[in-house]
């Protein structure tokens, strides 16, 4: 990795001292630590939700959310074909069946029209109980539309916000949308404890189901006090870092768009009402060949560029139902690449270097 790209996880002194305090106070060795309850309370306040449960990963958060929503064996749960593949596995892990929906053309979030098509197909939609909607690569889902389809059909809406901590939509934290929301403190995420996650809801009934599932009586999927200790200092800087990432995204997108013979198309969130949080910046390439070339050149030069999630459109029909076309999901999986947020944390004087490195990776 070039030395002008910051390392991740961060090596800040306040993370060190938070850990030392956690050890010195004996908090590290407790089942029910103040440090964990203070973190949950802080997340409730910061993200303006009534209930927050910490847990061991974003994946566990999604699975617990499915259980809290009452998903039972043989029920169906809708998710985008282009999504974190672990969400498909979460649905299977509660013995329910995934139903694939398409994403939008220019945003890797569920296309409400595609979801509506599934809802209208009354011969086959009877078993659906929930929808998992993820906000990927800094794009906000169309919450108003998704929520109205779900409400009309009596489906629970699970908001997978694992990639977008700190994002706001019309001034409201992303975690407040949907019936229940998840976040991740995984090793690569914008706030990281190596592993960890949380579930949020404003619904008292879902919150008590969540508690019933998690408390047995010790916590089934706990976040440890040591993990909780490193999160606070990162939350303190989250808004500033998101701002920094957004500024670098704007510069990059502008450089890519103004390069006339460029084979790339930057895909940041274009919504005016969204203050995004970029865990990854998506870039569309003009062909699979260009994609492979950029990935290879990036690997050579140490730029943190990777593939988008694969599309699940080819999953076996024994494992899932595919009632609608999944063209946009396929396209994104085939032709989009993603730049990791470490590269979005560079200082201003390196913006041009980063833009040139990406542009030249796409040239012959
Ligand atoms: C990372 C991620 C998860 C899972 O989080 P972990 O903490 O790694 O288990 C779930 N959904 C999305 C969209 C993610 O990016």
TrEMBL record:
What's one Pfam family here? DegT_DnrJ_EryC1
Q: Which InterPro entries match?
A: DegT/StrS_aminotransferase (IPR000653), PyrdxlP-dep_Trfase (IPR015424), PyrdxlP-dep_Trfase_major (IPR015421), PyrdxlP-dep_Trfase_small (IPR015422)
Keyword annotations from UniProtKB, A to Z: Aminotransferase, Pyridoxal phosphate, Transferase
- Supply the EC number(s): 2.6.1.98
Q: Which terms in the Gene Ontology molecular function aspect does this entry carry?
A: pyridoxal phosphate binding; transaminase activity
- Kindly indicate whether the keyword Oxidoreductase belongs to this entry: no
Q: Which residues carry this modification: N6-(pyridoxal phosphate)lysine?
A: 189
Query: What Gene3D superfamilies does the record point to?
Result: Aspartate Aminotransferase, domain 1 (3.90.1150.10), Type I PLP-dependent aspartate aminotransferase-like (Major domain) (3.40.640.10)
Q: Name one GO biological process term.
A: polysaccharide biosynthetic process
- The record's active-site residues are 189
Please give the family membership noted in the entry: Belongs to the DegT/DnrJ/EryC1 family.
What is the protein's name according to its record? UDP-2-acetamido-2-deoxy-3-oxo-D-glucuronate aminotransferase
Species source reads Rubripirellula obstinata
Q: Which gene encodes it?
A: wbpE_1
């Amino acid at each position: 990795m070039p030395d002008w790209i910051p390392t991740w996880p961060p090596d800040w002194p306040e993370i060190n001292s938070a850990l030392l305090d956690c050890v010195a106070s004996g908090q590290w060795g407790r089942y029910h630590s103040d440090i964990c309850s203070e973190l949950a309370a802080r997340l409730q306040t910061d993200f303006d939700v009534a209930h927050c449960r910490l847990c061991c990963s974003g994946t566990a958060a999604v699975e617990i959310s499915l259980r809290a929503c009452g998903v039972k064996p043989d029920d169906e749960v809708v998710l985008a074909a282009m999504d974190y593949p672990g969400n498909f596995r979460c649905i299977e892990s509660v013995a329910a069946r995934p139903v694939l929906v398409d994403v939008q053309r220019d945003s890797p979030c569920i296309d409400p029209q595609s979801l509506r098509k599934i809802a209208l197909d009354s011969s086959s939609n009877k078993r659906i109980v929930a929808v998992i909607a993820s906000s990927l690569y800094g794009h906000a889902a169309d919450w108003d539309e998704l929520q109205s389809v779900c409400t009309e059909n009596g489906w629970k809406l699970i908001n997978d916000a694992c990639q977008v901590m700190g994002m706001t939509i019309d001034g409201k934290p992303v975690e407040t949308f949907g019936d229940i929301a998840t976040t991740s403190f995984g090793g690569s995420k914008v706030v990281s404890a190596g592993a960890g996650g949380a579930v949020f809801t404003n619904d008292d009934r879902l919150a008590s189901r969540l508690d019933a599932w998690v408390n047995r009586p010790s916590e089934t999927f706990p976040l440890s006090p040591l993990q909780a200790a490193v999160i606070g200092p990162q939350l303190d800087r989250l808004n500033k870092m998101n701002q920094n990432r957004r500024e670098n995204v704007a510069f990059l997108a502008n450089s890519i768009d103004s390069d006339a013979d460029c084979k790339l198309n930057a895909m940041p969130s274009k919504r005016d009402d969204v203050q995004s949080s970029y865990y990854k910046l998506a870039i569309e390439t003009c062909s699979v060949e260009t994609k492979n070339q950029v990935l290879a050149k990036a690997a050579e030069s140490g730029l943190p560029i990777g593939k988008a999630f694969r599309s699940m459109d080819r999953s076996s029909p024994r494992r899932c139902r595919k009632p609608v076309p999944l063209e946009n999901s396929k396209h994104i999986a085939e032709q989009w690449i993603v730049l990791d947020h470490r590269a979005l944390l560079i200082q201003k004087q390196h913006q041009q270097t980063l833009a040139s490195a990406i542009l030249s990776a796409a040239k012959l």
